[in-house]
Amino acid sequence: MIKKQKITNWGNYPVIDSDVVEFTQTNELRENISGADKIIARGNGRCYGDASLQKKVISTKKWNHFLDFDRTNGIIECESGVLLSEIIEIAVPAGFFIAVTPGTKFITVGGAIASDVHGKNHHKDGCFSEFLIHFDLMIESGEIKRCSKEENQELFWATIGGMGLTGIILSARFSLKKIETAYIKHEAIQAKNLDEIYQLMDESESWTYTVAWIDCLQKGKKLGKSIMLRGEHAKVSELPEKLKKEPFKIKKKPNLNIPFYFPGFVLNSLSIKIFNWLYFNKQRKRHVKEIIDLDTFFYPLDAIHNWNRIYGKKGFIQYQFVIPKNNGKEGMRKILETIANSGNGSFLVVLKLFGQNNPNAYNSFPFPGYTLALDFKLNDKLPELVRNLDTLVEEYGGRIYRTKDAMSRPSLTNYLKNIDSEKFNSLQNQRINSNQKK
């Protein structure tokens, strides 16, 4: 089935007209691939920018069945349109959790592989691909290839982090992480500035999960004012008595919904300053220890449906980069100063530590260093800010996460290898390649 419709990814920028193909049989998919000039797979549209956009896209939303669940060893096999949220619903009661998860559970398995998603535990566990056993991929000829570390190895590694440019992922088999409870032993520590947060990041490397929220509008001695968040999966013995009887049961909380796009004037430097002040000071003590549920720790924004509408109809971009650890503090200082001076603030600013990535996963974004992700509302000043940030990221030996990219320079995003299909091609890839040639 082909539907003509306007589509956009989570940042609501850009918005394009597209022929959206939905399929329930591989023959349907094969025919649509054969008849297309350029085409790209699209899952739940939770990436940003133009990463999964094209004049014709293959939607995997209806290709969403579970194929197998080994409850003894914690191994899932499913079609590529299955959401991480759907996996969590059946995995957690069985004593398992997704080994590597990004900050939203509303992404598809196919998208997790194409972006080789990372999480708060990259310094310990690497990317999603570390737990991937095999996947089935339909290539340009319509043939379905089983890809693993032993079979079709080159295609396996090119597809991981390959942004959908090698073919259509049909299904995947991967392992989960064993857990005792549906809760996290969590600590939150306030940091006055960049020096303090870097010290806390270094001290927290033994923790499985670490991330820091940063107030990016602070300057001077308060530059890098932040909160360190770290966690471990809680054991039954560590739970309060009232939770020990049903350690995998989480009390359902009401979800909020943003029913309309906010007017453009609502989100500005003043409102962001107010939000940042409230977020930092809602924590009464410098160091807080508590037991919280998985959703609260891993997916706080998922509790607010359509939160992207806060940025208004024009939309926003997410800008995420990684710079090497050896010059990370100096580079991050200059980058945060540039953002603060620009007035283009962000209240969603996340700092994480990357460890050593699997060298075979050459199309995967992370390398050892610090990564910062920020949301910026679309306005006339934003392109100049992105150019300035790109210059600094390049100066400090970094690169941009293609899953978030909307307007960065090709020298920071053109790092994919062994991608030679003309048919599987996103608007993002065309933009990067055409700008590279100029």
The appropriate CATH architecture of the largest domain is: 3-Layer(aba) Sandwich
Report the mean per-residue pLDDT as an integer: 94
> Could you name the CATH homologous superfamily of the largest domain?
FAD-linked oxidases, C-terminal domain
Give the low-confidence spans: none
Percent in helix: 25-40%
Strand order of the largest sheet: 16-12-14-13-19-20-18-21
Q: What is the CATH top level name of the largest domain?
A: Alpha Beta
The class by helix and strand makeup works out as: alpha+beta
* Distinct helical segment count: 13
Secondary structure blueprint with pairings:
Blueprint: E1 2-7, E2 16-22, H1 26-34, E3 40-42, E4 56-59, E5 66-70, E6 75-79, H2 84-91, E7 96-97, H3 109-114, H4 122-125, E8 132-138, E9 144-148, H5 153-159, E10 168-175, E11 177-178, E12 183-191, H6 194-203, E13 209-214, E14 226-233, H7 241-244, E15 256-257, H8 269-281, E16 287-293, H9 294-298, E17 304-305, E18 316-324, H10 328-342, E19 349-354, E20 369-377, H11 382-395, E21 399-400, H12 410-413, H13 427-437
Helix pairs in contact: 10-11
